[in-house]
C-alpha cells in the first residue's frame, strides 16, 4: 500500500537546510506540488498492532518495493523482517517498535514523525536489529533531506543497544605480526567483533581495523596478524605520567544503521537527520557505510537546528567507514555526545557547525583515522578547512570537551576554529554572539596523537568557510572587548607523535596547564600575549621509536621522524613567538641533538618575519637529563623575526644566571657582557632589551632598513613580507643605534616596546631639512619635541632631539604608566 507523506512546506525546509554543513547559503529547489506541512505532534498510542498481522494493513501485508505508512495513531510491533520497502513513513501519533528478536528492516528511506524504537533506556535491546537503507531508486529527495535518509522530523528516535566496553588501551606493546592484544581492561567483546586499533606513530594510516577471534580475560586473539607495531608504555617523568598507549575501540554493536553494500563503491551512504522538535536518544548502535561523498547536509548523524536538546544524547555508539564527516551538531545546544568510537571518516569528524552551538558535552569519545579528502578517490573538501581535517571542529568555546582522544588524524586533533560571529544559518541571529571573545567552557584531559597538530586554537572561518589567523581573547562580556579578561586554561592535554605541533594557540590570556607533550615536531607555540605553558612536561623523544614506512628517511636508531621530507628539522619543546609569553614550572627531557637533526627544550619559531617581544620569559624549568636547553637555527633569508630572537631567563633555570637573556641577534650577541654559546647558536647576555619598530606612515616602501650598533655590527631588515614599509627588531636599552632606511619618507613613525617607565633608547637617522618631531602625534599634536644641541642631548632626562651633520639624533623615553614610547618624524607639509 502507498500513501502520501505528510511533508513540511518546502519553504520551511529551505530555511532550515540552506547552507547546512558548508557555511555557505544554498537554496533547495521547490516543486509545483509541494506537499503540506506535517501536523503538530500527537500522543503516541500505547496499544500494539503487529506488522505480521494482515488486519494491521487492512487485509494485505506490505510487499517488496512498496511505500508504506503506518496506521495513524497506532503503535506497530515489528515482529518480522519485512521485504525491502520503497519507503516507510511513521506519522505523528504512530510508532514502530522492534520486537525482542533478530530483525532486519530494509527501506529506501524512513521518515519518522511519530516514534521509531529499538529497545529502551531501562531495557536495552539484546538481540540483533539492523536498519538498512537501500538505493534502488536513485536521486530521491525525501522532504528535502535527499536520498537514503533516516529522517526524524518532529518525531522521536529511540535506539538502545547493549551497553558494552566502548574502548580501552593496550597494556603491552603489540609488535607488527602479532595476533594478540593485551588490554588494560577485560572487554565484553566476542568473536567476530570488529575493532579499531590506533596508530602510535606519526602516520595516521597505521591505524588498523582488526577482527576478534576469541577473548580470554584481558587478552584478545585476532583473526589476522597486525601490519604495524602499536606502542604501549607509560613513563613517569618529573612527577608527570606520560601515557603513550594505543587505544582499541569497539566498532560492532547489536543495533546497526547502514547503507547496503554497494555504498562502499558509490560513496552514497546512509544518513540520519534529526530536525524540527525531534528528540533522539541513541546508544549502543553501529553506523556503517554512512554519510554521502561530497554532499552538503548528508552526514552520518546530523542534529540540525534543534535548539536546546537536554533530553537527547548520542552515547556508546560506533561510526565507521563514513564518506562525509561523523557527527554534526548544527544550531543545537546541550547535547550529550559521550563514549563513542569512530573509524575511517573523511573531512572534519565531530563537527560543531556555525558557532552558536553551546552547552554541548563531548566526553570520552575515541576518534580514529580521520582522512582529508583524496581527489584520487573522487573526494572533494566541503570546506577549505577540510584539507586539514579535524577530529573535533569546535566553533564556540562554550562547550565541554573532556576526556576525548583524537588518534590518527590527517590534520588537527582539536581545532578551536572560532568565527567572529556565527556563520551559515546561525548568522541570521548571531550578531550578538562573539565566539572569539566567549569564555572557555571546559577543555580537560584530552589526548591527540598520530597526526599533524594536536590542538589548534587559531584559524577561524569567515562566512565563506575560508580560515585565517584569528585571536581568541575571552572576556566577561563578549559584546564588550574592553570588559574584564577571563583567562582560558586548556588543562591536562596530552599530545604525542604530531608532525607539526602538539599545540598552537593564538590570542590573549591563554594557558596550557598540566600538559604532557612528547615526540612532536614542536611541543607548543603561543602566537599570543599574556599567555604560556605552566606545570607541564616536555619530552623530545621517548623510547617509542615508531614504525617508519620504507620510503621515509629515518632518524638515529631507525626511528621515525616527524618530517621525513625535512629530516634535519630541529625538534623543539617550547617555541617562543610573539609575546608576552612564558614557559613556567615545566619539566624537560629527551631533547638530544644527533647527526640527523638538532634538538632543544627551548627555541624560537623559525623562518619568522614578524615582531617578537624580548621580554618573553622562561622560569622554573626542571631539566631531567642532559637535554640541549636552547638551539636557534641560522636566520633564514629576509626573516626579520629570526634576526631578533631573544628571551629572558628570569631565574637562571636555563642559563644558570638569573636575569640573563638568550639572543641570536647580530646586534646584541657581541656586547662585552655577552657569552657566546656555539652549541646554542646564541649568546647569553646581561642588559635589558626592547622591541624597536619603524614604519612609513604614508605607505611607501622604504626598505631595506640598515640598523647598526655602537660596535659596528649591523643587520639589514627586510620588513613585513611584501610591504617594505614596517620594520621591527630587538634592541638593547641604553645603547645607541644608527638606523638608515633605503628610501625616503615625509612621515616616519618609530617606537619601542620596553619594560617600564624610564627605559631609554638612543637612535640616529639620516635626515634632510629640519623635520617636526611629535610624541604620540595622532593623540595630541601639541606633543612636539624640543630641539637641543647634541651635547645637551646627553644630559636631558626626557624626549629630545638634535640635528648635526645630516643626522637626526633622538632620545626616546618610556613615560608614566606606559611600556611603550612612539614618535612621529614629519615634514612640515604632513604634520604641521
TrEMBL record:
Residues 460-479 are annotated as: Disordered. Its main location: membrane. It is found in: Cell membrane. InterPro entries: CEMIP_beta-hel_dom (IPR055401), Fibrocystin (IPR052387), G8_domain (IPR019316), Pectin_lyase_fold/virulence (IPR011050). It comes from Deinococcus navajonensis. Residues 55-172 form the G8 domain. Residues 1-26 form the signal peptide. Keywords: Cell membrane, Glycoprotein, Membrane, Signal. The keyword Cell membrane applies. Transmembrane segments: none annotated. It holds the Pfam family G8. SMART domains: G8 (SM01225). The lineage of its organism: Bacteria, Thermotogati, Deinococcota, Deinococci, Deinococcales. This is G8 domain-containing protein. It comes from the Bacteria.
Amino acid at each position: 500500500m502507498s500513501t502520501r507523506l505528510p511533508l513540511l512546506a518546502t519553504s520551511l525546509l529551505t530555511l532550515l537546510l540552506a547552507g547546512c554543513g558548508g557555511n555557505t547559503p544554498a537554496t533547495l529547489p521547490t516543486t509545483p506540488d509541494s506537499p503540506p506541512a506535517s501536523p503538530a505532534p500527537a500522543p503516541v498510542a500505547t496499544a500494539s498492532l503487529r506488522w505480521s498481522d494482515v488486519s494491521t494493513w487492512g487485509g494485505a501485508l506490505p510487499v517488496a518495493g512498496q511505500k508504506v505508512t503506518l496506521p495513524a495513531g497506532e503503535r506497530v510491533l515489528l515482529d518480522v523482517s519485512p521485504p525491502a520497502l520503497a519507503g516507510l513513513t511513521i506519522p505523528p501519533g504512530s510508532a514502530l517498535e522492534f520486537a525482542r528478536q533478530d530483525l532486519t528492516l530494509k527501506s529506501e528511506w524512513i521518515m519518522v514523525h511519530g516514534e521509531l524504537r529499538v529497545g529502551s533506556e531501562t531495557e536495552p535491546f539484546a538481540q540483533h536489529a539492523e536498519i538498512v537503507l537501500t538505493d534502488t531508486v536513485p536521486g530521491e529527495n525525501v522532504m528535502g533531506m535527499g536520498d537514503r535518509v533516516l529522517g526524524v522530523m518532529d518525531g522521536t528516535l529511540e535506539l538502545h543497544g547493549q551497553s558494552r566496553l566502548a574502548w580501552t588501551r593496550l597494556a603491552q606493546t603489540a609488535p607488527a605480526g602479532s595476533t594478540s592484544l593485551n588490554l588494560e581492561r577485560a572487554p565484553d567483546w566476542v568473536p567476530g567483533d570488529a575493532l579499531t586499533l590506533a596508530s602510535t606513530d606519526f602516520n595516521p594510516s597505521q591505524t588498523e581495523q582488526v577482527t576478534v577471534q576469541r577473548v580470554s580475560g584481558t587478552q584478545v586473539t585476532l583473526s589476522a596478524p597486525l601490519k604495524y607495531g602499536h606502542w604501549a608504555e607509560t613513563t613517569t617523568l618529573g612527577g608527570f605520567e606520560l601515557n603513550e598507549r594505543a587505544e582499541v575501540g569497539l566498532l560492532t554493536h547489536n543495533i546497526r544503521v547502514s547503507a547496503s553494500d554497494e555504498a562502499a563503491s558509490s560513496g552514497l551512504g546512509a544518513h540520519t537527520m534529526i530536525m524540527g522538535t525531534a528528540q533522539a536518544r541513541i546508544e549502543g548502535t553501529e553506523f556503517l557505510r554512512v554519510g554521502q561523498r561530497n554532499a552538503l547536509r548528508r552526514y552520518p548523524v546530523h542534529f540540525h537546528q534543534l535548539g536546546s536538546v537536554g533530553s537527547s544524547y548520542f552515547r556508546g555508539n560506533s561510526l565507521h567507514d563514513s564518506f562525509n564527516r561523523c557527527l554534526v551538531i548544527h544550531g543545537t545546544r546541550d547535547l550529550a555526545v559521550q563514549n563513542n568510537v569512530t573509524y575511517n571518516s573523511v573531512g572534519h569528524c565531530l563537527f560543531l557547525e556555525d558557532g552558536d552551538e553551546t552547552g554541548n558535552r563531548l566526553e570520552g569519545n575515541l576518534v580514529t583515522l580521520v582522512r582529508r579528502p583524496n581527489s584520487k578517490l573522487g573526494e572533494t573538501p566541503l570546506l577549505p578547512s577540510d584539507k586539514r581535517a579535524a577530529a573535533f571542529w569546535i566553533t564556540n568555546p562554550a562547550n565541554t570537551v573532556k576526556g576525548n582522544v583524537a588518534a590518527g588524524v590527517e590534520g588537527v586533533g582539536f581545532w578551536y576554529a572560532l568565527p567572529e560571529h556565527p556563520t551559515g544559518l546561525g548568522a541570521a541571529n548571531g550578531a550578538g554572539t562573539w565566539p572569539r571573545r566567549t569564555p572557555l567552557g571546559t577543555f580537560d584531559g584530552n589526548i591527540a596523537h598520530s597526526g599533524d597538530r594536536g590542538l589548534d586554537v587559531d584559524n577561524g572561518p569567515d562566512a565563506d568557510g575560508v580560515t585565517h589567523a584569528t585571536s581568541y581573547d575571552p572576556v566577561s562580556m563578549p559584546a564588550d572587548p574592553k570588559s574584564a579578561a577571563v583567562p582560558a586554561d586548556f588543562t591536562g592535554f596530552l599530545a604525542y607523535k604530531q608532525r607539526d605541533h602538539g599545540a598552537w594557540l593564538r590570542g590573549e590570556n591563554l594557558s596550557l596547564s598540566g600538559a604532557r607533550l612528547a615526540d612532536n615536531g614542536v611541543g607548543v607555540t603561543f602566537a599570543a600575549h599574556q599567555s604560556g605553558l605552566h606545570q607541564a612536561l616536555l619530552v623530545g623523544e621517548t623510547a617509542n621509536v615508531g614504525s617508519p614506512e620504507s620510503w621515509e628517511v629515518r632518524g638515529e636508531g631507525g626511528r621515525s621522524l616527524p618530517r621525513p621530507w625535512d629530516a634535519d628539522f630541529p625538534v623543539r619543546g617550547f617555541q617562543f613567538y610573539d609575546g608576552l609569553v612564558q614557559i613556567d614550572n615545566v619539566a624537560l627531557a629527551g631533547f638530544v641533538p644527533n647527526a640527523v637533526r638538532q634538538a632543544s627544550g627551548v627555541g624560537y619559531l623559525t623562518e619568522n618575519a614578524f615582531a617578537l617581544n624580548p621580554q618573553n620569559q622562561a622560569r622554573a624549568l626542571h631539566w631531567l637529563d642532559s637535554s640541549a636547553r636552547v638551539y636557534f637555527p641560522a636566520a633564514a633569508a629576509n626573516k626579520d623575526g629570526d634576526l631578533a630572537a631573544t628571551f629572558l631567563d628570569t631565574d637562571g633555570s636555563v642559563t644558570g644566571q638569573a636575569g640573563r637573556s638568550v639572543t641570536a641577534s647580530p646586534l646584541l650577541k657581541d656586547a662585552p657582557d655577552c657569552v657566546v654559546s656555539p652549541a646554542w647558536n646564541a649568546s647569553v647576555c646581561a642588559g635589558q632589551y626592547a622591541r624597536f619598530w619603524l614604519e612609513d606612515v604614508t605607505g611607501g616602501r622604504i626598505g631595506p632598513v640598515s640598523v647598526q650598533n655602537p660596535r659596528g655590527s649591523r643587520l639589514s631588515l627586510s620588513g613585513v613580507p611584501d610591504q617594505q614599509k614596517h620594520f621591527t627588531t630587538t634592541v638593547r636599552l641604553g645603547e645607541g643605534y644608527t638606523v638608515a632606511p633605503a628610501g625616503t619618507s615625509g612621515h616616519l613613525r618609530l617606537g619601542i616596546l620596553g619594560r617600564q617607565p624610564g627605559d631609554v633608547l638612543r637612535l640616529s637617522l639620516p635626515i634632510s631639512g629640519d623635520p617636526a618631531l611629535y610624541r604620540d602625534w595622532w593623540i595630541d599634536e601639541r606633543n612636539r619635541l624640543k630641539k637641543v644641541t647634541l651635547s645637551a642631548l646627553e644630559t636631558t632626562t626626557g624626549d629630545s632631539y638634535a640635528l648635526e651633520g645630516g643626522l637626526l639624533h633622538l632620545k626616546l623615553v618610556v613615560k608614566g604608566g606606559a611600556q611603550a614610547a612612539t614618535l612621529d618624524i614629519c615634514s612640515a607639509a604632513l604634520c604641521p
